[in-house]
Structure formats: structure tokens, C-alpha cells
User: What shape does this take?
Amino acid sequence: MATCYKSIHPVKYYRDFLAKGVRPDGRDMQKFRPVSINVDSIKTAEGSAIVKIGNTVVVCGIKAELAAPKAEEPNFGYLVPNVELPPLCSPRFCPGPPSDLAQVSSNFIAETLTSSGCVDLKDLCIAPEHLAWVLHCDLICLDHDGSLWDACVIALVAALRTVKLPHVSYDVEAETTVVSPEKRNKLQVHNTPVATTFAIFDDEILLTDPTNEEESLSSGVMTIVVQGGQLCSVHKPGGSPLTESQLQECINGAMKRAEYINKLVNMTLESLGT
Amino acid sequence: MARMDLISFKGLRLDGRRANELRQIRCKMGVFSQPDGSAYLEQGNTKVLAAVYGPHEIRGSRSKALHDKALVNCQYSMATFSTGERKRRPRGDRKSQEMSMHLRQAFQAAIRVEVYPRSQIDIFVEVLQADGGNYCACVNAATLALVDAGIPMTEYVVACTASLANGDVPLVDVSNLEENSGGPNLTVAALPLSGQVALMEMSQRFHLDHLPKVVECALQGCRDIHQILDQAVRRHTEMSGSALGWGNRAQVDL
Assistant: This one.
């Protein structure tokens, strides 16, 4: 009976729950879903992490390659993030070229990396003007149940913190490269950004960490990226307007969550023994 | 070029297995919430995920609809970080297209497509870590995902590889290192209980006299894997059934 009502009039179904102050999955409006992180499980990648937020699963794999640095930035290596939303993660994605959401997500991750400065690109340079590391960060969503960007950022940061790059020596005169795979140096990650997504339902109710259904029924979505007590970015693509106090409430929520997530990531990395 | 000895004097392979031993298989069904059926399977170091959507209405061109059968659509994709060297094109390159086609052909032999006319069944496979036997792990994972989705099949489709070491010892379930060492590779996708072969593919060459024993080796591997997959399905059904109270029946003998 409830499932019929849910398919016929989903918005009213949600409103009835929210009127009692609770969401259909039992959470209240400010509660986050449980997060689980697993690192370094993919041995073919230099660094990897799998993050699960509720039912949303994102896996991040980092592969390192050697290349010549760009002519206008001879002292910097590069980080190339890419988000893939394959058709297996949700029925709304069809096989074919990357969807709009995938491209926007890749762009968002790239901007988050540069604005938070979590990896200093100078660390990736081996020999200025000749050789530098290129880190390809590939994020694949395996199950899309809302808060995609939150999971992507956590997976990316956790994977970066497990990356171990082999020692490379480059002889400038002879133009020879010697790679010693046994001697590995950990990548220095300076900052750890954390993203939090909020959904605006019916123009006034704020839901934290929305599921896929909630995102599709809501009138607006917003993502806030926080790092080390500082606000990194706010992404609010249209949707219902928010008052300043609501925005401040969201930022406070995001700050508290960032502390929790950072503790979780630290615990996971410690248990790895690195 | 000196070829590595795939099987030592004492009968041990490069990873310590014997000639007729499979790699360790770990699998889990029902891992994702969005697809109708999903499964995760590890065969040694090869890790694959399979998701099944369907049966549902045909997407895209309605002209592809078959009036008496369901359309089986497969997509094989390898993550860019799954191989030693970064893979630039996860799907759409020739090898992936070929694998997708082979998957579709293997499953068309077993899925009861006549039960769902004018509809489509999607099978998506993602390889997270590739260490040899990718196609086989994909077929096995997809079988589990189809069972999880409740799609009727005549039988499980199980795949296994076999090779020949030192010219005359058949090896089952070859890893990446053994595949690349230059020996012949035979891949078989079979319906184990009826002993029928749905797909067979071979590379390199070996003498016709050795063919029956290599095929038998691969088929035996398929039968062994079938037992493992069947146990996993029963375990999963017991767990999810008992959680739901078995539809109020007192006891069920499986």
C-alpha cells in the first residue's frame, strides 16, 4: 500500500514524512548516512580507495606516469582527475560518451583539487623542463544513491594518501631515466578537503546527505567543500534560493562533518600500517 | 628467448598451484542497490563486478525489438587502473567490443529469452583489477548477477581457461603471467550440468592430439567453479530468505 502511494505521488509521500520530522529511511533532517572506507585494495594501481556512503559506492584508482611538464609551467607535474558514471551505477545512465553529469563532476573534482591545494604540484616534478609525474585519478561510481560528490572527494583524498611513487633519477645530459621501483616515497598530501551535499525540499526544508530519490524530488541541491577549518568552495547550481542563515547552518554542518570524515580517514590509513 | 617453465619439476606452477588447481574464488551477490541484480567476484587477483538491469523496455531504437524474444545487451568495461599499464580507453576499443560480443553470445545460449518478448536485459561488467582470466571471471560474475536479478536461465554459464605447459601438461585457470608467457590459451564457457559448450576460443597453437585433454581440463574447471558458485547462491538465498521469514513457512530443505 505504501509502495503504491510512493509511486503515484512521491512528493506528497515525502511531505507526510517530513511533517513528522523524519525521512523515509529513518534519519532526521540533519543526520548523515554511515560512511565506510577501504584503501589500497587494487594492487595494479599506485593508490586506491573505495568509499561507501549509505548505498553510494565510488572507487578511486590512481595511476602514475612520467611525462614532460608543460612549457609554461616547467616546475610542475600534473594531476588529471576523471569521473566516470557507467551505466551499471544507475538506470538513468546509458552506454555511450560521458554524460553531462560525468563531465561536470570531473570539472568539480579538478577545481576542488586546485583550490584546496591538497597536492603541491612542485612535489611531482622530477627534473624541471624535462620530466615530471602525471597522476591520473580515475573515479568510478559503482552505485549512485545520492551525495556522489561527497563520496568522490573522500575517495580521491584517501587514495592520494596511499600513493607511493617510485624513486626516479634523470640524467639531463644523457637524457636517460632510471626508475627504481623498490624505493618508494609517499606522496605528500598537504590538505584534506571534504565535500558535503545538501538538498532543498519544497523551497524551505534542508536535507543533509540526500539519497538519489531525495535529490530527484528536491527543488535544489548544494555542495559545500570545507578544508582545515576554511571554506574551500560552495557549489549551488540554481534551484530554490536560500537565506543567509540557512547557508550558514549548512556551512556549520559541513565543518562538523569534515572533522568526522578526517578522523575516519586517519583511522583507516593507520590500520593499513602506513 | 628462453621460455619460463610453467610447471616445475615437482609439479608446481609459478604461483605455487598444481596443474589442476583453480585460483581462490570469493564472491558476493546483491552488492548494489540500484541494479536489479549485482555480484562481485574475485578469482585470484582478478576482481570483477557485474550488474544486471532488466527485463525492461527497449531503450533507444524501438526497431531493435524482437517480437518473440528479449534482447540481451552486454557491456564489458575495464577500469583504467585495472592493468599494469594505464588503459586509455576503458570501453569502445576493439578488445572490449569483442569481449562484449562474446559475453552476449555466451548468455544468449542460457537465458530463457522467449519468456520476455519485446524487452531488453542489460548486463554490465566492470573489471577493477585484471590478472588473467578476465573473460571467465566476467562470465561467472554475470551468472551470479543474473541469478540475483531473478532472470530465468536454463543453467548456470560458467567459464574457465586452460593451457598446456611444457608441451604436454594441461593447466587450469591461467593467470596473467602464464597467459603472457607464450603458451596456448583455451577459453571455454560451458553449461556444466548438461556438459554443453556455449563458447570456445583458442590462441597460439598446439598439436591436435593434445586437444581432448586440454578441453577436458577446462570443462572440469567449469564443473568445479559451478559447485563454488552454486554454494554461494544457496548461502545468499538462505541468508536473505531467513531474514524475510521464508514467506512464513516453517522449514525449507534446500
Observations:
- Chain A has six helices and twelve strands.
- Chain A touches chain B at residues 42-45, 48, 55, 57, 59, 61-63, 65, 82, 84, 86-91, 94-95, 136, 138, 140, 142-145, 212 (CB under 8 Å).
- The CA atoms of residues 40 and 48 of chain A lie 5 Å apart.
- Residues 37-271 of chain A form a domain with the Ribosomal Protein S5; domain 2 fold (CATH 3.30.230.70).
